[in-house]
Amino acid sequence: MATIEVRPQQIQQGGRVSLFATPSRQTAGGTTEPTAAEAATTITWEILGFGPLPGDPTDPVRAVWDVPDDQQPGAYTARVTFRSPGVADDVGTADLTVQVRPFAAGDSINVQLRRAGSDPTDDQALWTAIRRSTDRISFNEYSAFIDPIMCNIAPLPGAREPRKSIGPRALPFPGVDAYRLLKVATEVFLIVRCGVLVDSHDLTSPFEGVDLEEERRRYGESGDVDGDAFGRAIQQRWLRYISAHSPGERRPDEQDLALLPYLGVIRLKLGELAITDADKFGVECFGILRDKLTFPCFLELIWSYWHEEGMLVQSTEAIAARFQNLHGPGDYDPLAHVDIDPLRALNQLMWGYVQDEQNRLSPLRRAYEYDHQYGITQLAPGGPPLRPVDSRPRFLEAFHTLLSLTSVFFREDDDTTIIADGFPVLNALKDVHLLLTEGQHNQYGDLPWTARQEMLMEEWLLARPEMREFLPGRTMVAYPEQWMDRVDTMKRLQGWTPDTVIHFRDLGRFGEQLLLSIRYGNWNAVNDRTQAANWARYWRSEIQGYLHSYRSVTGVDLGLERTDARIDATMPAVHLRRRLLEQQGRHAVAAGSDQRGGRELGRAEPRAQLPRAAARAPRELPRGKQPERRPAGLPPGRTGAARRGRPEGE
User: Fold this and answer.
1) Mean pLDDT, residues 20-25
2) What three-state secondary structure class fits 287?
């Protein structure tokens, strides 16, 4: 092995290192005549981690390394290779060290500030599970689940054959089998997809299909750890989070029962009750339902509220009314051209949808639950007032205060000269959590489930290919879900709110995830601002998306810096109604200007030069005979009126 002499072995940045090599066949003091093979030898120099070095042209066994000023400090290895024909390579190595050069006068220093990091917290795993659960029940996932079943390609989960085991007929009408299958399959979809299993022995199912790179970014983790190790770290945080209670506080037969910390506190309040299975309701088995405690379904009613404000339900109801030959509320019916021929599958589906009206939730029923949970209603002003027993009038103020404080936190967190304080966000989270849990009673688990099932079915009906013929939309708009262009088309036909349904979908989606993370987090037991800071950073995309969509549909910016403590707590329905009236007022002003302009033009120019339409101006007709052209107005249910033949509130 060749040898290398390094002078000096430690060098500062910007210095020079001299290298001398001696082949293994020679000694340090010996001299011999080179043979022909030795004369053909090539000598190459290299610094590992830097690159090749040029040798001395006059003496190839010597090389010089001029260390750059910005060379990374550390240990390096010099390597020389003697390569001769027909002989194995003779390689030699030597170690040297590059040290940081002391600063001198005139040197420039690069300074870069980074955002202050925060320690990880175990509740981050809960937020990952919530995102994964809500994404699994999105419309795109629902459509991929339903289409094969409705096409008789895939069976229902648990059924041996397609379209089997769907139960007895629930409607006393013929021709409703297709709708009945859609209804049962939608319920099965929610049963299979909704919720997260809380089990210390199963740490993988809550995180199946999670995008680890996305979660790494949300957690603020560095990319040093590989994906599998990061996935295992999430599972360990989840295990610590669901096992956060002391076993001595549980009943003797529940030592291994893992719970979310919030539900664990509720379990301790009901400590005298045993836990029973889901199908046991007798007096002898009186207790807490296990599935409700260990398999919470992550559904939030605010998703249904914003989709209803986006006119999803109203669009489907208007089509159903046209299917029954019922005239709309306006002077003319914009859906008069809609004729669903009986040869299409949509015809049978709409028949079942109409006949099942008495089994669906009414707008008034949902309005009472919106008020119970959030203190809001989707009913337009002027309708019959609600008389709820329990309401949450402070929820909007508390929730909007939280969103405003997170906006302040983001501005401070982006400023690398400031360490953002998470305590204001933490206090606001506690206020919202308290209000949410106060409204978590009576219909909480069942009505949101039923509303989600009905609205998913309505989205699927609107996404049918036949609807494109009856409600043609704007082809070049990239809607994220197939049903959206039909609703926007309906809004233009009926003269409803002009804002796209995309914003309402985002409000429902983002609002659901945010409120679930607040509702099921044990925030009343938290006194660490790091957890609130991590919550704001993890949900930043959803928070800012909610703020943007709320500003787009209501005109109110909740993220502005305020010099006073006033937060907009007006119900969104009031803002939406105001914007609708403003739109109709602008149309009325524009129509009046056009009529006045036409009359002035008629006085200024001869009639023969007017356009044909102006020449036939209906000035001679009696004024009372002219049909008044105005928007069709809101569909039934938006005013809180009772459905036909169904008294509400009884």
Assistant:
1) 84
2) strand
